[in-house]
Amino acid sequence: xxxxxxxxxxxxxxxxxxxxxxxxxxxxxxxxxxxxxxxxxxxxxxxxxxxxxxxxxxxxxxxxxxxxxxxxxxxxxxxxxxxxxxxxxxxxxxxxxxxxxxxxxxxxxxxxxxxxxxxxxxxxxxxxxxxxxxxxxxxxxxxxxxxxxxxxxxxxxxxxxxxxxxxxxxxxxxxxxxxxxxxxxxxxxxxxxxxxxxxxxxxxxxxxxxxxxxxxxxxxxxxxxxxxxxxxxxxxxxxxxxxxxxxxxxxxxxxxxxxxxxxxxxxxxxxxxxxxxxxxxxxxxxxxxxxxxxxxxxxxxxxxxxxxxxxxxxxxxxxxxxxxxxxxxxxx
Length: 332
Prior knowledge:
The chain is α+β, with helices and mostly antiparallel strands. The chain has helices spanning 20-29, 34-37, 55-58, 97-103, 106-133, 159-174, 185-193, 195-204, 218-225, and strands at residues 11-19, 40-43, 47-52, 80-85, 87-96, 144-145, 180-184, 230-233, 236-238, 245-247, 253-257, 271-276, 281-282, 285-296, 301-310, 313-314, 320-324. Strands 1, 2, 5, 12, 13, 14, 15 and 16 form an eight-stranded mixed β-sheet that branches. Strands 6-17-11-7-8 form a five-stranded mixed β-sheet. Strands 3-4 form a two-stranded antiparallel sheet. Helix 8 (195-204) packs across helix 9.
């Protein structure tokens, strides 16, 4: 493992850095979904405290009738405190002077290496968030459902009934109906191929439900399941130094959630990803993944470093439920 530089002079490279908007765009293009489960929330400190109003405080059943003396009942709100934290993430790559002279100029090499590091950091974010939400141990037992007829069984599977049962439990637990269902692309196709789903699509008369004619897309499934949005995970990771690809979002796992719809940090939702950067605020924006470079004279070259600070903040754990749609999880 390489030692950290002690006396290096770092140059912050805004030309190689990534903004929050680009952060989201790049993750969408890669088939990532972590930024939808926990949208980035720019913060001006690496960690801090925030006031919190529990959900039950906002939904009290209070007598609003006028008192005999002309007054009304006094509503009191009990605030609690909560906190967020971010952790430093980063990766470096060596740019050798001799290699530069032989193959390329410095600017192109820096951009190429920086881009590769950026992709690794974005992938790490996705793996971090997805791993958390697809692990049964991170849910209360009452918010995990298994033992269903596998959605791969087209004749017997009942995706709508499964989702509808979870929707009611979700509503009574969180106070709002879910607005999103997350699942792997192959599971989306399995759900659309189920006789139960095809029948609902056919009866709605908006899509040709004959075999081979159905467009396998998330909008069709969302309408068939009566849920505002189906968000499809479709990204890969490679384990080790040899070619060994696997899905980041495991097959057989779906997450029903109420996710943020706005940039308002006070919105009642599942949670956010607090993001901090030393670059400062520019017109309400903040750098999400920033770049630095420094010389390494002892190896006749330089290094490019990309860094980020993020964390996971679950505001309302009751705003997510885990559904094992093949009876149990089958990581692919």
